[in-house]
């Protein structure tokens, strides 16, 4: 099963490599991984999407908790949560496909960020599934480049993951 | 007090209570060595190879419970230390390794003797630190000792660039007495509800079994374990790492378990209905095939490390906590409880176990003109009165030492159980001797392992260590040869060691006493003579039977009830 694990890491050099190294050393999957500073300058927030059986996920969270740089950790898929990912897609947009792509953008509430005579850059935000669906409906031949942020997640309600 | 970085390291080690460090100088640590020269409270042991330094610090830590401290230079100094760091990591040994690093402004430039020490050691340390500012040095060292010695212990590396230790940059120093780390707070006490559940299970058990590991030794919980076991009257087994955690000569002890454990210990594990696992991690060499492990047992697992619990084997009652505190709580609850264990059922269970014991699975053929390695270990036990510190290397001799030298006290059996590092024995024995100068210390080794760190004989001479090395020399990488005999139709691919040195002469050249022993009747006398020389290192090169195998054996992929017995025992095997 797919799990989204959110972590607060000490903002130390090498903290990211400890997490990445743990996953490669123990043979766990990483589907996506994002890390960036938060409002608290001493920590970074990492969101890691992984998959595995219940036992494997239990080991992953235990092993991550053992890392000295991990301050707090939460498997946000264990309860109600919001998940978002951002994707930028560069497509060839000429002739009829200019209108067609624009219509698809409207349906997916995507934005065109940049326009040239022959291309668009489109921004789509949503769950991973929605982004996959958007790519599916695009004509593959016009896709020039795709860049995805990896998933971000946050639990619903007042309860917060913070130091 | 204004000190340079190098002086801070020395002063900090003193304030931390460190008395001895093991190291080897080099360019990146010259400032530190200069500060070392100018002080007289830290004793430095000059090794001959950085691997030796880490194993010595490791042996010192295993024998005392105090963290071992190592000082090595950057680049090759650090990489040579890695095997010893990984060895300590696998066996959860507290150690702090200070490595020199090229100056901060040269990091990343492929400078002379530069290596990414943090990157290289990351997977085999509990944690590591790069100190880029002298102002962080004392606090970082304190964190290193705190992390290394608390929770599940382990090695911590502190990488110190040369400019951080520069003698001209002096800053105020104060010993950071206490430290808190928001991201690191090991659990100590076990959950009382879980402990109560465990007690209920134990008191209801009909075929109980206690299985304990290195955690009992590391947490100095042998006394609490003895109280618990004797109150319950249950059979108990130790892992290779746990030997000495329970007195091996006690009637409740059924021997070591696992791949070369006793038949009775493994059979009792397989057939038990309640298993109490304490400070043990269900290692593959213990469990065998996970699917066949303890099929009818409810399992209680006490461990300081939550990640050790349910890692390979599912357990019904997990208890996260320090072994000693949990055992104390258990003993207190049992003392208050009016309920007793099911003595009748347990007596029945003991009858079954005695039947398994009647096979005498460790019997070996003593006839013949060649020296049997098991016999040497038995004589070593007799000659040392069973009270020596025994360090071993890795291979057949390690298993024979574990099987034939019953340890009654913790911290007496010093071996690389997890990583299985050949070359560990001699330097580890030296670390033990540094910790306990008056104790009897022996290293049981083989002609394969001993040459992997034999240069430390020079260190032993320099510091006058009277260790006794017992080299079980069968001319083969014996454990490799044994596996080749069992699994590769005796194709002895590169397991025969041609052109061995004359170990007696080699040892003499280092300034020690070397003796070659070739006949069974000479073994006891040679051992007695060796241990009578209280101020000399004596190397006994004992030529043993090259065909001898370690029995019994749980072959890989087999269950604990499927042990291969020696030919001598097979006729007695029970249906």
Short characterization:
Chain A has helices spanning 15-26, 54-66, 96-107, 128-137, and strands at 2-10, 32-37, 43-51, 70-75, 81-92, 111-115, 119-126, 143-148, 152-155.
Which short descriptors sum up this protein?
heterodimer; A: about 160 residues; alpha+beta; five-stranded antiparallel sheet; four-stranded antiparallel sheet; 9 strands; B: about 575 residues; alpha/beta; six-stranded parallel sheet; 21 helices; globular
Structure description:
- The complex is a heterodimer of chains A (163) and B (575).
- Chain A contains 4 helices and 9 strands.
- Chain A has 163 residues and is α+β, with helices and mostly antiparallel strands.
- In chain A, the strands form 2 sheets. In chain A, strands 5, 6, 7, 8 and 9 form a 5-stranded antiparallel β-sheet that branches. A 4-stranded antiparallel β-sheet of chain A has the order 2-3-1-4, with helices on one face.
- Chain A has helices at residues 15-26, 54-66, 96-107, 128-137, and strands spanning 2-10, 32-37, 43-51, 70-75, 81-92, 111-115, 119-126, 143-148, 152-155.
- The two termini of chain A are 28 Å apart.
- Chain B is globular, with a radius of gyration of 24 Å.
- Helices cover 36% and strands 16% of the residues of chain B.
- Chain B is of the alpha/beta class and 575 residues long.
- The interface between A and B is medium-sized, with 19 and 17 residues.
